[in-house]
Structure formats: C-alpha cells, structure tokens
Amino acid sequence: MKLEEVGKLSIGATLARIKAKPNEKAYLRRLFTIQELNKVTVDPYLQVEGQEILVSDRYIQEVPIAKVGMVLIGLTAPRAFVVTDAYEGYVIPINFIYLECHEGVCPEYVAWYFNEHPDIQRRLAVERQGSSLQALSVQKIKELPLELPHVSIQEKIARVYRLRRQRQQLSVEKQRLEEKLLNQLMIQYLKEEQ
What we know:
This protein is α+β, with helices and mostly antiparallel strands. A hairpin with a 5-residue loop joins strand 4 and strand 5. Helix content is 42%, strand content 15%. It starts with 6 loop residues before the first strand and ends with a helix. The protein has six helices and six strands, in the order E-H-E-H-E-E-E-E-H-H-H-H. Strands 1-6-4-5 form a four-stranded antiparallel sheet.
C-alpha cells in the first residue's frame, strides 16, 4: 500500500499567498516550523523561538491548520510527527505535507514507519542522494510504500515507539543533570582549595 492510500494527504500553505497585506483585516496565527519539527522529533530541549504570521481574512478559512492526530511530514527535514495538543491550531506552511489518516490507521504507527522503518529510510536516502536540492517531492512521499497490519498491531508498535522516545528523552535529561552535578562538584572543589 502507498502512503497516500492511508489517508488524505495535502501540502501546506504558501505563506506569501496567505500573508495579510498592510491595512487588510488579518488574524495572528502560530506557524509550525522546521525548528519545531526538530524539537519534537530530535531534541526536546532545543530552544525554539515561536514564529507567527498574520493571515489575511480572505484566506483564513482555507489555511491548513494542525489538528490533534494529524501527521505532519517535513519536506526539507524528512521526519514525521503526530500533532499533539501543544501544536493544535498552528498554520502548516508549504515545506510540510499533512496526512489525515483514515479510520483503522494509527497516526503514531505511520510516524514510526516513516521515521524508523529501514525500507523507508533507504528510499529517502536514495531520493536525496546527489541532489543539491535536499527537499523531497510531494509525489515521492505519496508513493512511499507502507505496510499496514491490523490496527491492534499498529497501536502496539506505536506504544513501544512512544515509550522508546520517552526513554531516550529521560536518558538525555539524566546525562544533562549528571554533567551539571559534576560541574558543580568541580567548582566546589575549586572553592575549597582557595
């Protein structure tokens, strides 16, 4: 099965098109960025300065907005993320595609498959190899193969994936705290020598 067959797959908004012009009625909205994607998929301690955009009143109804359970996939940073409450309502820009999964498809399973499955990783590496432009095409992502087992299996894999990521985050936090403690001990030793 292809990725495009597991749900409705669409591309984000062209920001220049939806951005309000001076003196035009507009709505201020948060913008989902590659930095936000890096924070949720790579380093939860990454400091991200939130970006906002003034969306023109003419386009406010058609702007793609992140919804809980939606899968966002970066085109320039090929990683998938399932939208949580923290990112609901963010505007999705053109350097992302978003997937609204059909009934019987677990979004976290799709994110795991995209981020971790060796076949997908191999395909993504081939697609980006030798290209000066590192963005993936929407068509290539639509055509990515996806194994879709029964939803109970999808949910088990998603649960293990979520727990593994939590464990990784806790491990990073433990390492940071240990480094901080050791640094404080060394400073304390230095003070005692004076």
